[in-house]
Amino acid sequence: MTDIPAPPPGPADAATRAATQAATEAATELGLGTDWAALGAPDWDRVCRRAGAILAGQGQAPAPGWDGALARTLGRPDPAAARDELARDAANTVLAEKGEVFAPEDDA
After folding, report:
1. Which residues of 57-84 are buried (b: 16+ CB within 10 A; e: fewer)?
2. What count of other Cβ atoms lies within 10 Å of the Cβ of residue 52?
3. Using CA atoms, how far apart are residues 41 and 58, in angstroms rounded to an integer?
4. Are 74 and 52 in contact (CB under 8 A)?
5. H/E segment holding residue 101
6. Which one, of 88, 84, 83, lies nearest residue 104 by Cα?
7. Kindly report the CA angle at 27 between 23 and 30, in degrees rounded to 5?
8. pLDDT by residue (tens digit) across 53-93?
9. pTM for the model
């Protein structure tokens, strides 16, 4: 069996590494530590804003959706998925206030 070498790192890999380094630097500056799973949503938002500023300061404009990719890389839930869940919760609250049934199993 022949070992196939890994492809050289591409631009996406470099961008992910840069974002990870910026997030680590940001979390350290903010005194939040790098236990990514333990960070609450407000602290994660602070880290992302600061990491974005660090990347911009290095001349690397973060691509749209970079924070979601960073979250997945660091083992955090994707912020877009959290927003979808909050939207569902808000919609269910409205339905509940109207006396509507909103449980997924009731949609059958």
Report:
1. eeebebeeebbbbbbeebebeebeeeee
2. 20
3. 25
4. no
5. none
6. 88
7. 135
8. 999 999 998 888 888 889 989 988 766 555 555 567 677 77
9. 0.63
